[in-house]
Amino acid sequence: MLVKEIIQELEKLAPSAYAEDFDNVGLLTGSPTSQVSGILVTLDTLESVVDEAMENNCNLIVTFHPIIFSGLKKLTGSSYVERAILKAIKNDIAIYAIHTALDNSFEGVNHMMCEQLGLTDRKILIPQPGTIKKLVTFVPKKDAAEVREALFSAGAGSIGNYDHCSFNVIGSGSFRGNAASNPVIGRRGETHYEEEIQVGVSFPKHSEKNILNALFDSHPYEEVAYELTSLENSNQHIGIGMTGLLPEEMEETAFLEQVKKTFGCGCIRHSALRGKPIKKVAVLGGSGSFAINNAIAAGADIFITADLKYHDFFKAEQRLVLADVGHYESEQFTKTLLTTYLKKKFANFAVVLSNTETNPIKYF
C-alpha cells in the first residue's frame, strides 16, 4: 500500500478542495509513493506521537491538526513543532493532515459531535459557497445517452437525495474543420450542421478532473465544446458546523450535565440560561465564535463549540445558550472516526488509534 493510495481514500471522506484557505492540509512530510507499513491516527502530531508511531511500526501518521500551520524558516529543534518534524523526517515517517477538510465534510467533525449527542435531522450550519459547478456540453443526438451515463458514473448529476439529474435541449450545432482537422462527422473545409443535444449537469467542484476526463473519453468529437460555471446554490452536504434535534426536549441544566459527561469536560463555560427547554442544538468543533450569529439564525436553543472569549458570551443576548466545552473536547472523537473509516477501507492493514494524550489544557 502506498501513501498516495491512503490519501485517495481520505479524499473521498474529506476532499482537500473544501479545506479553508487559511489551512495547511495534505501531505506535510514524506513521499506519496512510499510504501506504508502502518497508519497511526491522532488529533495532534507531537514528538511523543511520532515516538508512538515508531513503536507501532507505523510510517504514516494521519493527523487532524497540521503540525506545520504557518511557514517554517528553520529546523533546529528549538520548538515542539520543529522537533516533531525533524523526528518524522529522520525516521521516514509521512504526516498527512486533514483538519478543515474534515470540518467541512458532512460525515466529519460535527457529524461526530451530533452522533455523541444523539441528534437527528442534521443540517449544515454554514454551507460553503462555490462548491457546486455546472457543465454544459453539446453531443450528437445518437451519442447523448452514452455521454450522460459517463458523466453520471464520474459523479455528476447528484442533487440532494437525487442522482442522474440532467437537463437536455435538442438543437442544431454547426462546425467547419480546417486543413489540420480530422472530423468524426462531416468533411474538413465544409460547414456541417448536426442535430445535437445540449446536456447540462451539476457536480461537486472536487470532481471536476474526473468529470472532464469522462467527458473527453466518451464524447465522439475530435474537439469537445463545453462550458464550466460555478454556481451560487447552497450545498446541503459541504460546510462547517451542524444543527440537529434532540429526540425529546431537555431542561437546560440537565442537558448541560449530559454534554459535560459526553465530552468529558473539566467544566463548561456558558452564557446565561434562558429558562427554556433545549430541543434544537447547533455544534461546531474547535473555535466557533464566528458562527454565533449563524446558530441564532438557525433557531438553535444552544450552540456547543470552543474557544469563546469574554465578549463572545454577550452575543447570546438571551436568544440561545452558548456553551464552550473546550477545543480538544469538541474534536476528540475525530480520531475514532478516522480510525474506523480507514479500518473499513483497509481491513487487512494495520491502523492504530493513538493513545497519546495531546490535550495541552488541564483542569484543577
UniProtKB/TrEMBL annotation:
Pfam families: DUF34_NIF3 (PF01784). SUPFAM superfamilies: NIF3 (NGG1p interacting factor 3)-like (SSF102705). InterPro entries: DUF34/NIF3, DUF34/NIF3_bac, DUF34/NIF3_sf, N-reg_PII/ATP_PRibTrfase_C. Keywords: Metal-binding. It comes from the Bacteria. The keyword Metal-binding applies. The keyword Metal-binding applies. Belongs to the GTP cyclohydrolase I type 2/NIF3 family. This is GTP cyclohydrolase 1 type 2 homolog. It comes from Salinimicrobium tongyeongense.
